[in-house]
# Entry
Amino acid sequence: MAKATTIKEALSRWEEKTGQKPSDAKEIKLYAQIPPIEKMDASLSTLGNCEKLSLSTNCIEKIANLNGLKNLRILSLGRNNIKNLNGLFAETREGRRSRAMKL
# Structure
């Protein structure tokens, strides 16, 4: 079986296709990657301006690494293998749980 696509690889392909820098983009579509993305890795933290991120139709099991996406408003994760929604929340410095994004 082929090795999974990493977020970093998918972002590189997206940049080649669109001609935009991922760090500047407000909308990024990484859906239906071949081979599929399996992990939401730390490369997502480079998407500080992203408001809409599509990761649907991959093989992601765990929501993670959304803390750096301060402008994220829409996250599309349909048709993945998500087991729980724990990664949608982040601990604040005061120890309270806050939403990492608006749903």
